[in-house]
Amino acid sequence: MAFIKFSTQDYPLAERLEVSQDIYAAIANIDATIPRGQVPHIETRIRLLPGISIALVECSPLVVRRQSRQLQDGNDDFSLLLNPAGKHNWSTTMEGLGEVECAPGSGCFGFNDRPGEIRFNGTRTHILNISFSRALLGPLVAEIERTSRSPLLSQEPFNHLVQCAVALTQGDEHSDNSIMEDANRLLDLATLAVGTNRDREMLARQRGLREARMKAVKADLMAHAWRGDLSLSWVAKRHGISPGYVRAMFEREGGSFTDYLLGLRLQRVFDRLRNPVHLNRSVADIAYDAGFNNLSWFYRAFKRHFALTPTQVRELAVVECTS
């Protein structure tokens, strides 16, 4: 899974205008116009998957265009142009779709085989460009090509799509299996965000949206598992789904919400018992801090999970540190 990174910060100040108009423009296959007298700032991270490319860009004011010369590359991909973060809007004009202004948290649909431009006016504006080959996305969104305006994007799939795509631009290595899983997830979320036929929507919801929701719920638990008041209902409300849906997602993986949360809390206690930084803290204090409120139950669960008592884990850690 190829990864490409470009930053004007890697070049001397005097060269940044030239590299933006030459090197960056060549990578993105666009023309770049920078306001007179300004030194451009461009940060780009590009991830290439089978049939899909993801480009996350942060930039200072500029205008990028795809015109006759760039259109000769034969690229007829569909693109989702998303504004994922920050406080600045950008606007795009494309043949057949007119002008669309995208505030943070919104986006629009684009066609790489049509001339168009994007205007970035803010000091640090973000755009997330997810391009799908026509063979992948074309059969699913055929109606869009016959319309004269970009479709409104469905908010929940949009949010999951942004999270998934941005994570893939971070440069981490992925296995061949996870590459295909990521590609399928992006395709599912894109079709749900844009809208598709009923059969495809059902498949996308069963696969892409469910996986994205599960990933988001687990990430939320990783951040908040230590709250003593955390509950199934609390998590469900935060993600706009029912408690039964959350419970069913974990059951499909062969476990349960309760067991997953317990595992996170027990692992936190285990790690701290082995950490010399927490050597002077009592086991009870560490357990309460991890979200447990019943010590008797905690001790039983810890022994069952690790086949050792908390005291034994701490003693072994002390021996390891002194040997």
TrEMBL record:
Pfam families: HTH_18. The keyword Transcription regulation applies. GO terms for molecular function: DNA-binding transcription factor activity; sequence-specific DNA binding. The keyword Magnesium does not apply. InterPro entries: AraC_XylS_family_regulators, Homeodomain-like_sf, HTH_AraC, Tscrpt_reg_AraC-type_HTH. Residues 215-316 form the HTH araC/xylS-type domain. Keywords: DNA-binding, Transcription, Transcription regulation. This is HTH araC/xylS-type domain-containing protein. The lineage of its organism: Bacteria, Pseudomonadati, Pseudomonadota, Gammaproteobacteria, Alteromonadales.
